[in-house]
Amino acid sequence: xxxxxxxxxxxxxxxxxxxxxxxxxxxxxxxxxxxxxxxxxxxxxxxxxxxxxxxxxxxxxxxxxxxxxxxxxxxxxxxxxxxxxxxxxxxxxxxxxxxxxxxxxxxxxxxxxxxxxxxxxxxxxxxxxxxxxxxxxxxxxxxxxxxxxxxxxxxxxxxxxxxxxxxxxxxxxxxxxxxxxxxxxxxxxxxxxxxxxxxxxxx
Length: 203
Fold this sequence. Notes:
The chain is α+β, with helices and mostly antiparallel strands and 203 residues long. The protein folds into 2 domains: 2-102, no CATH class; 111-200. It has helices spanning 2-26, 29-36, 44-52, 60-72, 80-87, 92-102, 119-123, 138-145, and strands spanning 111-118, 130-131, 153-161, 166-168, 176-178, 186-193. It has a 3-stranded antiparallel beta sheet with strand order 1-3-6. The chain has a 3-stranded antiparallel beta sheet with strand order 2-5-4. A hairpin with a 7-residue loop joins strand 4 and strand 5 (176-178). It is globular, with a radius of gyration of 18 Å. The protein starts with a helix and ends in a 10-residue tail after the last strand.
């Protein structure tokens, strides 16, 4: 019985992804968004971006439709932005590639950005995609877009992000997504334990 249920779930997911890719390929925004609304399983958006990114490009109708939902879900607890972020935790390159594909890419300017993340990941050379233009907002953004911190130690980072590294967002919006592979120098401003106030981070 469990095996049958597993097979049926796999068939359902494969059908959703097939319709999602078909909608993205043909520019059928209704079909695309209809399939996107059914990406309800854990990791559904990660599966979706793995299927979509190889397309290389999508019609402007898909970008416009996706941007509308993306922008209007910023304050929704279970909206697209939150669900996609959770599904892509720890997969920052896939997140950057997927959003660069699905969102319009206007001309951008370099930004000074801040990010809090696990000290362990930073020492391992892993830099995340979610940043903020306001140093004081970095802790809140980290709690919203990051996975659990194993040892409780987090590091405050600063970078001068070049225009080509910025995927979406602005300093006065809910975070900025960058492509970590396109960042230049990333500076560690200080370390704190998760149970301390952000003011205790060294300047």
